[in-house]
Design goal:
about 425 residues, alpha+beta, 4-stranded antiparallel sheet, 18 helices, about 5% strand, globular
Length: about 425
Amino acid sequence: MESAGAIATGWVKETFVDPEFTFSFIAFEWLQPLPGNGMYFYYAIMAVFGLAVMLGWHYRIAISGFAVMWTFTYLMQKSHYNNHYYLLVLLCFLMMLMPAHRYHSLDVKRKPALKKLTCPRWCYSIFILQLWIVFTYASIAKMYPDWIDGSIISMWFTAKSKLPVIGPLLEKAWMVPLVAYGGIFYDLLIIPMLLWKKTRISGVIISLFFHGFNSAVFHIGIFPYLMIGMMVLFFPPEKVRSLFFKKKPAIPVAADETVTIPKNFGLWAAVMVVYFAFQVLLPLRHHLFEGNVLWTEEGHRMSWRMMLRSKGGNVHFELKDPVSHETRKIYPTEFVSANQARKMGSRPDMIWQAAQYLKEKNKRDGLYPEIYVHAKVSLNGRPMQKYIDSSVNMAEVSWEPFQHSAWILPFNSENND
């Protein structure tokens, strides 16, 4: 549905077809949109893979194909970066390990020998662990002044105050602290609540309100509904069967339960240990960089820092001929879409990529200008301040992924310039 909807809503056209230049993840510049109507066909194929996964038709091929294609489209552009897009990448690859086609599927219709009434506990345990990491880091990331004092939330609610029905509710004084502290505690405690039988139903009820509110106010795509659907993983298998699969035979309790160790258990256990160690460590990488991650963006992506800040900026490029010293200004909307320009204005890596694009474009015309960036950014409603060192020739700057980019000017909350 996500793939077909991307075509129907015009998202594919806006993101891949119309722009002259696409901001791929750095080091993945070789992943470029297909020309012409190619991206429409690309997403149509993904939609077919998704339908095949849902029906359990050639499941392994379908989920593998969808996982690879979704990952490529994720890495191909970041002007529409969203945490749940990254989560879908991870869930798709985990689904490749699942025997999700072994009960009610077209694969079982084709090969009845595939049919199984149960699956190993690890099949749902790894999803629970993944979600636990996501929500825990989301909670920790909210523990910073602009969230705790409600200032960033107040900005959002002011912008949403005209929404029908829910708009007047957002203007209530008690809503801001409720959302601020409620968000921290929900993210921190919801997985333990769902795991513990005595608090499970309460966790479900709270989750329905929490995700419903986020969907209604912030319009954050499929994430709320995905999380609601995944709550089924926390219930005993027999309860799930009685609620959703009433025609499925009950599983008899074996008198002599034995544990069967699967083939290559040691290998797969090692893979999972490495995978989850990576998931735990990756969101911490911003501590390796200087400065405020909300300002520099270094280590921000893929770290579950969700709905934390509001940034706005303006940027233009000054191209200077090193011989004649003549200069000309280039504005982002001359070569990218309005949405790309809006995102680029407060994302240093995208500003750097745009400078490299201008460098290569001029190089093809036999020109080798110096490129200087003039940018100002506002963080969480604060006054605009200079963002990029305008004395640095960006045409000569290389990207260093493992160290702070010194051309990003430091954040100063007292700066009114």
